[in-house]
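Researcher: Before we compare anything, I want clean individual predictions. No alignment, no superposition, just each chain on its own. First chain goes here; please echo the sequence and then give the structure tokens.
Model: Echoing the first chain and its structure:
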Amino acid sequence: MGYYTTKKFEGYPIDALDYFSLFTKRISYFKNSANMINSDINKQIDNLLSNSIQKRNIAIVIFIIAILILILGFYIYKTIRTHIKELSNTLNKLAPITGENVQIDINSPKGMNEALKITEEAIAITQEAVKKSEEASKAKSLFLANMSHEIRTPLNGILGFLELLKTTEITPEQQDYINTIAQSAENLLQIVNNILDVSKIESNKLTLEEIDFKIEDEIENTLEVFATPCAQKEIEYVSYISPDIPSVVRGDVLKIKEILTNLINNAIKFTHKNGTIEVNVKLQEIKENRANIYFEVKDTGIGMSEEQKNKIFEAFAQADESVTRKYGGTGLGLTIVKSYIEMMGGNIKVESEINKGSKFYFDLWFNIVDATPKYRKNSFSNLTFAILNTFKDTKRKDLSLEYLNFFGINKIGFNEASELNKLSKNEIINGVIVFYEESEKDKIKNLQNIDYPVILISSLVYKKEIDNLDFKQFNIYDPNVPSKFYNAILFTKEEIKREVKKAEHKKEIYELHALIAEDNPINMKLLKTTLKNMGN
């Protein structure tokens, strides 16, 4: 409809304000429509843009994965090629075992078949060689066992007759020769015994023989054997055995003693004059009626480097070839020690430094038969000992004081006899302790007039000097073990008395008849002579 009906404008059919209002509404409608269209277009654009970005990111990730797969595939390809080449080289090395000299290429089917054939033949030949090697090893072990037995039998005869020869009238020079022969025979016997033990270990014929035993007594007896060899080399030989160890345990006592014997022998061999050997046996814990006991043998000998430590437990090996030339030995001792300890559930360890010494240590568990210790802690707390002050401290002194502390002994130090006399006016003194090597000799001599029992602690090196002293004394020689201190304390209480008897040749010790079962004529003769000397 038009705004006017004739060509001649006669005015608007509606009011101007109404028209303006309607026109404004129309403009607003168009504007809203445009905004709605624009919003829809923007949403569509945003959706398109978001989808494009997402697709772009996916494409990038796919591209990166493709690159990584390509790189991985190339690496796998190279690895497979390298392994194929190495496998070909290995197979080419196997070929001579079968007696063929061919070049194998496993890239081809023919080469693969040939490789399988050669591998099967090489495996069969190797298995046969291993079987023969095992048979040869068993034969070697059997031979060593038999030969060791055959050698040991006449050696026992030699040693036995040497002991009998010592009882006859001989000159000092002959005595020296006999001692040299006896020492050489004993060394040879030890070598034979070691070879026999190693052959048993290799053939898996070695077993544990567990029995009930008094561990404190057995260890003390083992340590006492080495007092003289240490004194001969002027080595300080000390020990600490926990006095509170259960009195009776169950285990293979012979192997434990052999372990300690081998370790102490090595320590003596490699420790020079004025060195120190220390043996420690300590109770670590008791759990579920089982005792864990720690063993340690420490010396100030030649020591070893890290490289040398890595091969000392190998059979027939020593830390250095020069060691064998200078010190002797077969290199079997530590092999046997390691095997015995591992059989009993332990693990031996070693610490060492060149020119500073070595320490071998391990711990073992034992079933407890009698948990009561042989010695009671603080059992002599009512006693007081006066100790002559020393001019130097030693391991012997330190460990001896530990024993005295265990027994609860009260201690007073003094410098000379006159000071001791003054102390006795105010203190009840039950005895005097003198560390012979660590004290001044003139002060020791001045003590000869005191009216107290004296405990002298010393190395066996000074035995002759100590025997010349005029003391009411009890002597403790290395190694210092609990029983020696216990008996020394009893001596001061006059519960035991020191007796020195001269060796006497007695006849007719026994009156009995003996049946000898022995197929070796030399050993038969030895046994008959020994029994005859005993009055049979």
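Researcher: Okay. Second chain, same rules.
Model: Second chain and its structure:
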Amino acid sequence: MASFARDILLSRSLHCRTVFPFLRRQLWFYAGRFLLALAMFAWTGSREVAGMVLRKDVLVFVLYCFTLFILFRLFKLKQQFDITCSSAIFSVFPTANPVSYVMGTNLGFTIGMEWFWLGKWEKYQKLGADVICIRSLFSSVPEFTVANAGAIKKISMDRTTYKKPTAMYSMLKFFGNNMVTTEDEEWKRHRKVASPSFHQKAYPLVWERTSSIINNMMCHEGWNDLKSGESFTINHVHNLTTKVALVVIAEAGFGLRMDWAEHIKGQPTPGSQLKGEAEHAASLARWGGWFWKREEMSVQQSLRIVATNAILRAVLPKILFWIPSTHLWAVDRAFGNLDVHLGNIVSTRRHLISSGTDYEEVEIDDGFDTGDRHVERVQKVDLFGALIKSALDCEAGPVSGRLNDREVIGNLFIFLLAGHETTANSLAFTFANLALNPRCQDKMFEEILAVCGGEDPTFENYGQLKYTLACYNESIRLFPPVNIIPKVAVLGSWLRHYHHHEGVFKDVWIPVGSKIMLDVVGLHYNPHYWTDPHAYIPERFLKISADQKDAFFPFAGGPRACIGRRFTEVESVCAMAKFVRSYRILPGDGTGASLLSLQRRLLQAKQVITLTPVDCPITFQRR
């Protein structure tokens, strides 16, 4: 089917008038026989007489109708191919449809989400342009993938012509509308309230919490007991970064205290915190009590389960959480309990902030190198409190600019999802790249010693750790958390792109209603902006050109750029500085293995909602 369709689309000599008249005559012939059979049945009332006429005609009639439809769509697509884009590919089904999730990517038939990651720049190189038009048989809407920095910048900045397809993000409305699920004036309302949450006072807190959490982890997990030269291996470093990112977002984002000792000691495993809750849910289900008794979890327990299972809840329909599965029941219960907990916390924090009593007790070092500490009451500066304070400030203005409690909670959940999932993945890939590139790791270590000396890195050192930040940026260039950013064209427009085979710029027409996918992976591997794009070279971010700034798109761009970019950068630089300062990062179980085999194992990734490492063993050796 796919090859037949492609032949028709590429044919310049096949026209409608050579095929359609024959099919039209056959269609009318069988339609007439069908009407004759109906008339005979109405006249005689005998099914046998009508069946003599209809025995084979119904099936043939249906086949002819289907053939006519297929050919009509192919000829229509051929006309659209000729007028839209010279670099176009054909697929029977559109991208990211249910068929592709089952069958994966099979070019000419289905195009799955992994096509964007696996194809990188090669798909554009093959077609000779950095804008590709995708036409499908069962969709009249053209799709365009874009890997040109200028075109992506235009699409990101022009919010009148190109809109965000909010329907695609409806699954993220777990707790209410938020910045990700809204557009136009509603999005502006959310953005206005949420922006003050990421103020300058928040970032020292992020650094302090990250540093404290890692110190706590090293103490409870026995890292500090290692002597120089001793090492241990974590089978999958993503498990470690997931726990670190979760506790950081819980403390710096939600103002919750989550001691590392609350977790199971040893290597953290995703879902291990579900064990107790899942077993309890199973015992209730066995006695039929689960349907009327729902014991509450603590907010910390609920937060851990929600953070590690948000994708599961987003993908599966709600009805599936009623099937006999202890894991699904625990997840469903965690979401319900977290909703209740957050609602109570919002009400409490609203009252405390409005009354000026939103304080917490913290231990402060006396500063005389005596080890003495005293407790002091300080005002909370976490994202949760800042968001509620901003919402309270907006309540003094017009009603249209306010956020209700559901919308406040909805935005907090997005902060949790983005601050946990993407940061954990990015840190894991960064550790893998440092393990595979000891030259870059040694250079980072020298920078940390030069900036911090023998002291623990502090937030005041953040601006000086330029190479450390460059290592992180280079890692998310190679492994961007989000592979594509969807848009939809609400107005027709021309889009300029570069045609590599001809060496000239061309304009492609984007019809109204077209789906546009900003291909972050293709852009990050575009050799027009990045020399040797597959290599890990952090130095390129120390002296970055204007074109490269536009071609670096892991946090999106334009008015809808990621609001938490500085948050994750501060957290990641702190974590990297803490680990690299005390430990040498090596590939796990890499004795005698070639560099190529290590790269294939440590850098293997899969596309879920964000790009996630598959198997990344890392060894930490005490310096």
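Researcher: What stands out in the second chain?
Model: Residues 1-84 form one domain. Additionally, The chain has a mean pLDDT of 77.
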